[in-house]
Protein: mannonate dehydratase
Organism: Paraglaciecola algarum
Amino acid sequence: MIITSARVIVTCPGRNFVTVKIETDQGLYGVGDATLNGRELSVASYLNDHMLPCLIGRDASQIEDIWQYFYKGAYWRRGPVGMTALAGIDMALWDIKAKAANMPLYQLLGGKSRNKVMVYGHANGKGIDETVDAVGQYIDLGYQAIRVQSGVPGLDSTYGISKNTLFYEPASTDLPKEDVWSSHKYMKFIPELFAKIRDTYGYDYHLLHDAHHRLTPIEAARVGKDLEPYRLFWLEDAVTAELQEGFRLLRQHTTTPIAVGEVFNSIHDCQQLITEQLIDYIRTTIVHAGGITHLKQIAALANLYHVKTGFHGATDLSPITLGCAVHFDTWVPNFGIQEYMQHSDQTNEVFPHDYKFEAGHLIVGEKPGHGVDIDENLAAKYPYKRAYLPVNRLEDGTMFNW
Ligand SMILES: O=C(O)[C@@H](O)[C@@H](O)[C@H](O)[C@H](O)CO
Ligand SMILES: [Mg+2]
């Protein structure tokens, strides 16, 4: 089955998405997500100018060889742009192979290990009361796992807080918004937030929290210890993770489960975290870590060390990534949880899909392939709009992590 065309489709139904579409001489096509929030056109150019010309004429069934060709052939390996571009091609090729085999992708991976995939939603509020209410809204929607993010007293804005408490999109079309951060104010406040939520809703629901790369290892250890009474499902991105051994300090001090990895783009970013059991959940995502082919390697390594999957699933990952993730989550033996920030109706119209949300879980579809498509005519109605993620400074003006 020979690749006859490979194109990049950039569309902006409320936010930018980059999609790879690969067509073959047998009439089958596949689509893959290649969206990198705030750097979309870098990936589009990496694909259009450097990768896609090398695809034409290749055998679409040779997924592994094509993956190795682009990984080793680039010379300049790894990195978010290159691995996101490779992921887009990889997802499209797995889509084609599953369609050619006339089976849903999870069957090709190894069949069902579960019939449904537990997900978590994002409850957020400007302060404790609004956040507590938002958690109640997610419970009413049927979620059993809820991520909790709140504004911090004394800070004008922070990560994860949106006007709409049930939807969160961090990118904005002007130049990067500047947030101001204080770890001191945050660390003082966060135990009070979770105490209030547990007092209100008890312990039947899984609560998750994202510290979004803002603490030092000892600060993260303090937050982990302070939150132990509230039995979190995980504390995410507590520390920036370039220094993988930095997590040893955090690990020594707290039994709060640790999750990290949404910004990782290869197994090398998390090998030490996994093999030293410094984390409990790996958050690498199919679109940013080289696609299904590479995620299989990461999940297999994690499985040896009691580490479970907890894939990133924010609104800036397209429904194609979510569709592939639900197939992967349905198969993978060491599944943990799947992030599920529901996309807007506009986005779902551009990306029709067959996965379904039911009572706090996602149910995989049975269509051949990964079950997601792109409506190219509709996509063409939403031209690209440059957008940036915010940046973050400390109160004294020091540039910090967002
Ligand atoms: O856990 C998460 O979903 C967050 O960390 C994301 O919202 C992240 O900030 C965005 O995906 C960045 O584009
Ligand atoms: Mg996160």
Observations:
- The two ends are 45 Å apart (CA to CA).
- The longest helix spans residues 80-100.
- Residues 210, 212, 236-237, 262 surround magnesium ion (ligand 2) (CB under 6 Å).
- The chain has 13 helices and 16 strands.
